[in-house]
Write a structure and sequence with these properties.
By secondary structure, the chain is an alpha/beta fold. It is 35% helix and 23% strand. The strands form 3 sheets. The protein has a 9-stranded mixed beta sheet with strand order 7-8-6-9-10-11-12-13-14, covered by helices on one side. A 6-stranded mixed beta sheet has the order 15-16-20-17-18-19, sandwiched between helices. Helix 1 (13-24) packs parallel to helix 2, helix 6 (115-128) crosses helix 11 (276-291) and helix 16 (401-411) crosses helix 17 (433-445).
């Protein structure tokens, strides 16, 4: 019997990880990337003796696959995916593939905002509690690579809607849905219902033995839940109302309660991650920890000493009485709303980049209240000008992080905050949001 052929599209972190695991499992493996492959990934493929191509997709080498694993960044509408679907060749995600080869339990976290923070915090609590746990998905090292080389009992996985779209048999032992707000609508025919349906896939295949944790204050989540069949135990969290089982805020105290066992209470002033959005993130992580029977003392300690994530409301410096904050990870409007909501001074806002069909209306009130000037950082800033020309006196265009920081420096006065919170993707001027954040930090340090 000839070997089954696995073709992997995209040779980034997830693609190369999938190639490692597929090779280990004895498949014939071929990797194809339409762009150039980064040197470090190319070196890994060469070392493993895995056949690959870059800057092209050769149909003859792809359409003979038994199964295809595609990078989450590749849309379902691109020619090669359309051709594969026509031939009825299954196209799956790296996460789906990797899960077949591990008996580890998975905690899967999705949502438009707060995924990385909640995933990192959950991992931090589990690690502190002494669990044998891995961190993967949209964060850290590839899930497939870890399944190939490590032996964890648990994984905390950050899962995007693009990953969920290519997950079919996969089952989350614990599923967390933080919120559903307009993002990536360009990939969902500009229909909110399509995007919400994609997020709800986090609950697919769950059984009565599993847990589903969600925000009871999020309108879109509640709407999506109406039509959904959820088999798992439900644990909501809310800062507006009391919940029987789950988490809620009363005054300044968080209560986390799972089947009336040993309730956890904690003051929000003890949380290392401040701001309203982080109360939600902490509640979600806290419920996961309680479901896993982690001691209250460990949960409290972990929530009190977690370090903030790079590029997410990261304090860079204070220069001449002006704070500089790097929130480059804010690639959608909602994230920028959270950032503005958490800053308590007048703001010089650096925003812009690749607009994914953004609706800036939700920012208008906060911009009117807090923003002195907007510094656009992107190739095409027309929509930002149109959205805010009546709300802000000064809107300036810039085309590099250095230029944006220089302009912001001259516009800011003592007591102000210069906030990089773009509300857009970064691909017009930068490699990715990390590159954008790093260039911003470099430019601040040169002031």
């Amino acid at each position: 019997m000839e070997k089954q052929r696995i073709v992997i599209l995209g040779a980034g972190e997830s693609g190369v990880g999938a190639a490692m695991l597929a090779q280990k499992q004895g498949f014939e493996v071929f990797v194809s990337d339409f762009g150039a492959i980064a040197d470090r990934y190319k070196e890994m493929l060469v070392e493993l003796n895995i056949v690959f191509e870059e800057k092209q997709h050769t149909e003859a080498l792809i359409l003979n696959a038994t199964e295809v694993i595609k990078s989450p960044g590749i849309a379902g509408t691109v020619a090669i995916i359309v051709a594969l679907k026509k031939k009825k060749i299954p196209v799956i995600s790296e996460i789906e593939f990797a899960k077949r080869y591990t008996t580890a339990k998975t905690i899967c976290i999705t949502g438009s905002n707060g995924k990385t923070t909640t995933t990192t915090l959950t991992y931090h609590i589990l690690k502190k509690a002494g669990l044998n746990v891995g961190l993967a998905g949209n964060i850290g090292h590839s899930f497939a690579a870890q399944v190939a080389t490590e032996n964890f009992d648990w994984y905390v996985l950050e899962i995007s809607s693009f990953m969920l779209d290519d997950m079919f048999e996969f089952r989350a032992d614990v599923a967390v849905l933080l919120n559903i707000t307009p993002d990536h609508l360009d990939r969902y025919d500009y229909k909110m219902a399509n995007y919400a349906a994609s997020k709800m896939r986090i609950t697919q295949n769950q059984t009565a033995a599993d847990q589903f944790i969600y925000c009871a204050d999020d309108e879109e989540t509640l709407k999506a839940l109406k039509g959904a069949k959820i088999n798992a135990m439900r644990y909501p969290f809310s800062i507006r109302k009391k919940v029987e089982e789950g988490a809620y805020l009363e005054g300044n105290t968080i209560h986390i309660n799972i089947n009336s066992k040993d309730q956890l209470t904690m003051s929000i002033s003890e949380l290392a991650l401040q701001g309203k959005h982080n109360i939600y993130n902490s509640m979600a992580s806290g419920i996961v920890a309680k479901v896993l029977d982690i001691r209250n003392a460990t949960i409290r300690e972990s929530m009190g000493d977690i370090k903030n994530i790079e590029h997410r409301l990261e304090h860079v410096a204070k220069i001449s009485g002006v704070d500089y904050i790097n929130d480059s990870k804010a690639t959608n409007v909602n994230s920028t709303w959270y950032a503005l909501e958490s800053v308590n001074s007048d703001v010089i806002l650096i925003m812009g980049g690749v607009d994914k069909g953004n609706d800036y209306d939700m920012l208008k009130d906060l911009v009117k209240q807090k923003v002195k000037a907007i510094v656009c950082l992107g190739k095409n800033n027309k929509r930002i000008h149109e959205a805010f020309e009546n709300d802000v006196d000064i809107i300036v265009n810039t085309f590099s992080a250095h230029e944006a920081v220089q302009v912001a420096y001259h516009l800011a006065t003592k007591g102000n905050t210069v906030l990089l919170s773009p509300a857009c993707a970064s691909f017009d001027l930068f490699k990715n949001y990390e590159d954008r954040g790093n260039q911003f930090k470099m430019a601040v340090k040169e002031l």
